[in-house]
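We modelled the chain as a single entity of 524 amino acids. Its sequence is:
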Amino acid sequence: MKKIHKLILKAYLGPMIMTFFIVIFVLMMNFVWKYIDEFVGKGLDPWVIIELIIYATANMIPIGLPLAIMLATIMTMGNLGENYELLAMKSAGMSLLKIMKPLIIVVGLISIGSFFVVNDLVPSANKKMFSTLYDIRRQNQALEFQDGLFFNGIDNMSIRVEKQDPETKLLRGVLIYDNRSASGNMSTTLADSGYIRLSDDKNYLLVTLYNGETYEQTRNSQWYTKSTLRHNKFDRQEGKIPMSGFNFERSDENIFSGNSQTKNITELQSSIDSLDKLVSDITVTAYNPLMRDQIFSKDPDAVIPPDSITIDRSHMHKAYVIDSIKHLDLRTRDKIWTGARQAARNSQNMFTFDESTSKEALNQLYRSKNEWHRKLALPVSIMIFFLVGAPLGAIIRKGGLGTPIVISVIFFVIYYIISTSGEKLAKEGTWDSSLGMWISTIVLTPLAIYLTYKANNDSALLDVDWYVGRYKKYRDALIARLPEKWQKRLNERAEKQARKREEKRARKAAKKAIKTGENGAEKA
């Protein structure tokens, strides 16, 4: 390997790793912000949250990798251009493609590896992530009381505490509404103080109350006319109430195996074949009885029209209906139309198309096709982003994180909008998945080829001075075609603006000179 190629690789790998972790971190913050409400107040073990974040990180790789590749590529080529290293390489006779050769090889290997990541790692991580999220959502809120507020984390119970001693955990001013009775009885308990806590195994709620009273309303089938209210006072009352949902219980992750996001490309292909057959079977089951028993229940060739009516055999059914009805009396005609309407209603009622089943099968089919194409589109999109970023970096010749981040985000937003729109249309069945999931690649590929061609030919595509010069040239040519009177006015206006700019520069220079002199005098 040439030393110059080692230099380029060294300049690229560092920014690529750095930008990849930055992008993944930003995406993870978005994930945590989205689900933070489900984590808080449940007393989860920190490892559970860390485990979920690890699974979510694997799921973010297909989104973050293309953006990181583009950002790192623009930074690398921009740094080489800004330090005139790129110019030196070209002066030595190396073309842009030859300079990019080691980067193309590295990005190609990353693209191949990304397929295995999205095909093997991501489905497994998604399965575990969905299972962990499901378990977190099933867990009840931790038993934590706040002064003056009702705690509703227990089904059919509400507990209010006026004040809680943070050291002894003694509760004062306890109010409990209990609606757990299957018969509909309701009880209200008031106590001066007490303790309420979960057992060590979190399967029971242990309640100890002091100096209180209980009101129980007994209901029967005629509770709106006959209901009784019982009142009991107590000095000490203890209770042990069975609880569930306070322990973090792991569910079987295989229950999410049917989701298209948890399957690899082989399983998706099998699902697509099965769903295609299922949709076809549902359609046949729904439409065949309608077509056979209602719409084509009678063969028009079997109908013998009257001798007095001439019929075009190519349009026999239409001609027979129109001409025969014309010659019928009003009552018979009304009878025929009534029968036709009734037949149409019967056809509609006979239409046994299972809408919910068919919609679910079609949705699963579209999602499976989308995921199948997504796994193949990711490696291609990585190469496209690289081929967009490399010439852009060579053209703008700006390194660092400022300009590259702006340009990368702009292109990624365009890519994301196009990709999301295409995926939505494919998910709805408006577009085929082969078009919806590849539309962003189809749009960006010509742009990548164009930018590579321009950068390879040292085009001034983003050179502001070049555009200013072209503007002045066209402006002068346009002014030359105008009448002399207008030319004179425009020239006078241009000279006036030039004098103003010159005066402004002179004032700034004078202020700077005065300030410099004052600073020098102070130092002296």
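As a brief sanity check on the tokenised model: Confidence is low (pLDDT under 50) at residues 299-320. The radius of gyration is 38 Å.
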